[in-house]
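Per reviewer request, we include the raw input and output of the structure prediction for the construct analysed in the revised manuscript.
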Amino acid sequence: MLFPLKAICDPKKVRRDGTSLIYIQYCYSSENRTLLNTEIAIPHRYWNKRKLSITPDLPQIYGSAKHLNAELTRMHRVAEDIIASAEKSGTENIGAFVKVTFTPKLMEDTTGPAAYSGICKKADLFEHIDDYIQSKTRKVTPKAIAAFTSMKMHLLAYQEHTKTQLSFSSFDFSFYEAFVDYLAYDYKLPRTKQAQYGLMTNSIGKTIKQLRIFVADS
């Protein structure tokens, strides 16, 4: 079975050390795609866009081209097995499933797609938010970190209010409408002597903006 997967190395996303990360791009619909970070980084000039592989003349300081290409092949097979598992189990948000399940160190299992069944159920949304905030600590301003942290607290409060377990698959149009209504009318403001409910419109807007950024990056 063929899956819409391919390795990419974006020349526009150059890091401070002059390297660019290699991602496995998964197009799970005609309009939606997600990037799986392989954690392999090389100067873009050593990426063969036609063959989707690292060129043999990669300087040894960045690793062995042969070994790194083998790793890319392995990760590609792992991603294929995860997708097959998601399709077989009827996962609703297959893009999110693949995103939260795939890691560069995840070993390919001889049992194939079945090896990944149920993994998505174990993934905790708020653990991913914590990891996301930590990854941004040195890349964005403290004000932005505070905004992401507030978003997390608002989601936790909403989860407790609705008595439902939030996950990536929760984020649809109906959720956004209900979440906005909750923040506007039912969210209890912290650190107030008398109980007060509802956030200001601009605060709600900031939370929704940060949530959309997080979902898009994830």
